[in-house]
Amino acid sequence: MKTYKLILILVLQAWFSSCEDLLKVTPENSVTFENAFQSEKDIVSALNATEKIIRQNKAFSYWPCQNGEYSDYYPSVGFATLNPSFIPDMQWIFYYQVIASANVSLPYIDHIDMPQEKKDFYKGQIYFFKAFTYLQIIRIWGDCILLKDDVIFTAVAKSHWTEVADYAIDLAKKAISLLPDFDQMTDYNGNAIKYKSTPSKGAANAVLAHLCAWKAGCKYMAQPDQQNYDEVDLWKTAEQACTDIIKRTDLYDLENSAEEICTKALVGNSKEIIYESMVRGFENELTSRDQAFCWGYYYQGWPVKAEENPGEIKNKSFRIYAKTVREMFPGTDERKNAFFYKLDSMQYKVSEEITGGYAYPYKWRIARVGTEGWQAGQFIDFDQNMIHFRLADIILLRAECRTRLGGNYTAGAIEDLNKVRDRSKATLYDASEYGGDLRYTIFKEREKELLMEGARYWDIIRNGYARIELQGGWLTATDQDFIDGAFFMAVSQDDFRGNPLMRQNSYWLKRQ
């Protein structure tokens, strides 16, 4: 398969272009997998390269969910409104590059002389990387190519997303069994690992929770012959995976205030973070072409982007009215003044001709500014880590799982909801909210807590709220449209090359 050969070439390039602080694979006269993996150092180098692929692809999973992230403004055409004249295609090669990179080193671990616990640690990281990547792939494309542990070069047909989810769930469970807790992890030299960019048991539990919740919640859009599974068991597994993270209060805890979500949790290396990619400080990788590793790029301008002026808020891709912010975060909820810059003064003391009535998002605070050439003084990117899972997400996901399970779980769901609210001094749960619909209340809390973090589209799909929370063509889309793949990206034509077994998503095929 030509695409897979290209992936392997990219993998090798990633190894040999690694940062100076990463270990290197030392090839002989020509690079072969056999001579590339002869020591523990070589395995570590390969894992660092795999992590680097995730880190460098900073738009990992962001672009496709733009249509579901909260905004008071959307363009009139495109995926955001399910406009049939617009086919949203996207290449998946960079995602499969992660899987290929992980697969290459896996067969050699058992042949290297090192302690069994080290072998388990490295295998656990590989299983995590693959499970994490398949979670992204099935949420973005649905049915996709399933590559397991072997490096293959032949044509491969797509598998149902439910089957891929089962494989990824199994990988996540293996990762949980093999990976240590974060405080027990050591690096190649025996030093304690300081950063949560290295997969841990907690990170693997986060992936398992999201995979199980996705398969359980999305049963309604699986193919009819793929719906013969028990979603209750999946919700129970997801709930337990969340619990296994939450109970480790010595490792993970909420930051102390809404302000600290912005100044600590989203900066990186925080007690609230479960898994992140190290972007902060990697100045040689932060260039203009790498923008949009977080949603702040789409929402935020002045004052973080010093070269902009307040009036440019009216030109942002996504915009939220100040009045919407007040409705979303009523009363004493401190998130309105943490997530948005000087909400009162910008709304009441600055002319609406300048602001357009919009609030000024301020969730990401630290900018990297160019120091030379044409970029001198210009915003390049946010100099903060890319956060994949934080504890507030897991607490609210457990709350959702508990509402799905009902019965004795319901009280725990309310406790989880209130724990997140209490941190930001928001009003605690009242049974009258949203007509007494606790699951929808939790969905709206995730919308608020994770605002501008890219989770809302997946939450909408998982809960079956498309006709409530989306707009345009989504309001009239049929159940069959969802089964056919309306939620997913079309497979890029570039990914058809060299694979005669490739088929397009059914929904988008009808519109080509």
UniProtKB/TrEMBL annotation:
It is found in: Cell outer membrane. Coiled coil: none annotated. Keywords: Cell outer membrane, Membrane, Signal. Residues 89-210 form the SusD-like N-terminal domain. Its main location: membrane. The keyword Iron does not apply. It comes from the Bacteria. Signal peptide: none annotated. InterPro entries: SusD-like_N, SusD_RagB_dom, TPR-like_helical_dom_sf. Pfam families: SusD-like_3, SusD_RagB. Residues 279-480 form the RagB/SusD domain. One of its GO terms (cellular component) is cell outer membrane. Belongs to the SusD family. This is RagB/SusD family nutrient uptake outer membrane protein. It comes from Butyricimonas faecihominis. The lineage of its organism: Bacteria, Pseudomonadati, Bacteroidota, Bacteroidia, Bacteroidales.
